[in-house]
Amino acid sequence: MEELQMKNILLACSAGMSTSLLVGKMKEVAQAKGIEVNIWAVSQDKAMKEIENADVLLIGPQMRFLKKKFSKVAEEVGIPLEVIDTMAYGRLDGEAVLNRALELIGN
Amino acid sequence: MENNKFMNFLESFLLPIADKLNNNRYLTSLRDGFMIALPLIIFGSIFVVIANLPFLDKVISAEALAAYQNALGPASAATLSLMGLFVIVGIGYKLTEHYKGEAIYGGVIALASVLIMTPQVLDGVSGVIPTASLGAQGMFLGIFTAFISAELYRFFVKKEWTIKMPPGVPSAVAKSFSALVPVTLTLTAFLIIRILFSYTTFETVQNFIYTVIQGPLTVLGSGLPATIVAVLLIQVFWFFGLHGQIIVNSVFDPIWYTLNEQNLAAFQAGTELPNIITKQFIDSFLVGMGGSGMTLAVIILIFIIGKSRQLKELAKLGTPSGIFNVNEPIIFGLPIILNPLVVIPWLIAPVVVTLTTYFAMATGLVPPPAGIIVPWTTPPILNGFLATGNAWQGGVLQAFNLFVVMIIWWPFLRIMDKKYYETEQIEK
Fold this sequence. Notes:
By secondary structure, chain A is α/β, with parallel strands linked by helices. Chain A has 5 helices and 4 strands; from the N terminus they run βαβαβαβαα. Chain A has a 4-stranded parallel β-sheet, with helices on both faces. In chain B, a hairpin with a 2-residue loop joins β1 (about 120) and β2.
């Protein structure tokens, strides 16, 4: 029997403010679809500590210069990371970002 | 097409700058160190606001007011006025954490190093630490000391000039011993620096840093030209979708906070405020009106003139966060980034608002920020009122500025709206 594991999606931006808007939308979509996920947003200086608990790290596009720095740690932990698409970010498109996150975890 | 090439060139130029600035360990620990101090600073600010409620002097007697203010005084005296102290610990902590060392030691060593260099005498009384040297005045010395002490500590730890405990000794005991040598050597280095400076004409390290670095830098930072440059830089970074404040603030914050604290000291003493440009000038009157670029004005304008479904939807989406000065939905959704249609109002409006705010304060129409740090998520109008030390003029100025921004944006937003509207009609 396959064990169902909770997927952990971590978002990071400067203060964790604007990404938390997106987190709200993503949770709505997840709940409506019955997907079991744990999604949370942190400020960039906390991201390195929280990454241990994540299955994927998504960075707000305004902080995309963090990608290089975060990539090293993400590699160590062995999780994928990506900068969130700017259009999806602007529209707070929770569905698109959630789908992309699950896709990244799946690969 | 040409336009696109130019944009790509600029982006390929700005991204590495953002990357360098944001990944520089000193700048990031500086910024994160300030972040650690922020809750304390805001706590102190809240009590300055409460202690100086408007009309209170008309309701209660002068003695009662003095007693009331004295009772609340320690709240800000222990936090806001000693801001440098927390920033120093924060920077030492964050830099040591970056090196994966015992972060708390990095913090307390930085503090001890600063205290070693601080003259512990005031008006002939020895055995006291002048709080002024731990506030704005000591900010720069504190920052440099935190950097150097964390580096020295790391160096000595790395050299393994530590006392090693035999196995079987509890790890907490071993830890306290392993820190002993690096701590001793680092603090001794600062003691030597202090002694050396006592033989110079500066007498103290404080005087040296203040005269040579902090003084000139804060004078430069309090001027209009440097402020306009900083504001334009923030806007340009954001135009390329990069977080402008976090990049620019990491360089400017020490200056802006120092100016802020000078104003606070004057505000509490009831004397004339020395600076117009302060941290709050930038945060409340430029950035804190719906987020960078004062996009709350754009949202309001869409509600007034918007016809296209796309913009109206966006305004609805952006309103709740916009009121609290978070504007990523507008920046990425309008979109503002890389959009040649809005580059003019995007760059011009903040500069115009810088000028209107500066002159309103320089002419005395509106009191300058009182040095109270208002959380940047405080909604406009209330934000301006609090920042200027409970002056209604501050709120009015923000409303006026929002109006100015709307006028500047109006023709450009109309073109954009029309474009979207026409496309929507065709699609129908």
